[in-house]
Sequence to fold (368 residues):
Amino acid sequence: MAETFTLRVRRYDPESGDAPYWQEFDVDLEPERSVLDGILQAKDDQDGSLAIRCSCQAAICGSCGVRINGKSSLACNTKLSSAAELSQDPDGKITVEPFGNMPVIKDLIVDMDAVHWKKIQRVVPWLLPEGDPPEREYIVDPESMIDITQSMACIQCGACVSACLSLEVDPEFVGPAASAKAYRFVGDPRDAHTEERLLDLAMDPHGIYNCTHCFACVEVCPKDVAPMNQIMRLRRRATNDYEIKDPVNGYGHEKAFVDLIETYGTLHEAQLLPRSFGEGSLVRGQTKPAAVKQLLANTPTAIRGLKSGKVSPVKVFWHHKLPDQKQIKRIYHEVEERGERIELNLYIVGESGEEEQGAMSEDTVETS
Fold:
């Protein structure tokens, strides 16, 4: 049975010279119908100038991405009833806005070329194999492709780009979608430029180390690609497999963090900063000219830590170890002796035969 839902749509036409404004539309549809159905009904019956991009209406093409009640979503994949229940409006009005982090062309349509596709192109989104191509096709064992199936599931809707907090702060950040696309080729055994790709992304100050682990891209992805997880996998490949020492101290920060936990069992925060600048080493962190320069630049942070009591002169030189620290070291040594890192792709493996493949949102379990 049809019900009445109110859509509160953000309207904006840059060419008109007018400021953005809100317009409400009452639509009569069954609760299980989508927000896109509501928008299209409003466009057909009330205002034909309302603009939205859409195509398949089946959550495959990714064209109808918008923000619904502040969350980046596919309009065709969001039920009216669910959107009304999650509305923060006391009357249950469904707020619909264009994607964030991208310029608006009109109403709910954003310029994907200006941001999303520009960043995808930046990571060279095609295979770069070695030598001449074969007469027919490249043959790859299915098992060797499991590692990249999650990143291959991306439909390029741009929801993660819209939700990315790092992009809000740094528009030059490569972004979650492009990073996931990059891992699709970094993990492909047919690609012959893995190290070059990782060097490019690690040495770029706006590259993979600019992610702040906010999980926003993971939460909004309609296909469980989990872009942040792919960024972390790129980092593991860059630091562990190729030991790429980047200018933004991603390598040093990871090594310092891991070594401190191995040594003390808990994080020695007073040493984390100098060790990070010194590529993981405390001595190098204190003596390396570039590291000293970075430490001096972060003096205000250290002063705030001293004032707040988070850091004290005593804590700088002494940090207690956990009573069972030997057990933690034993775990470290067992993992390091395995020789290779094994990542189980839960996107494919799953934990229940009854669940559809790809239903799990978790990416991998790193066992080394």
User: Anything to note?
Assistant: The CA atoms of residues 192 and 312 lie 49 Å apart. Strands lie at 3-11, 21-29, 65-68, 71-74, 94-97, 104-106, 109-110, 343-345, 364-366.
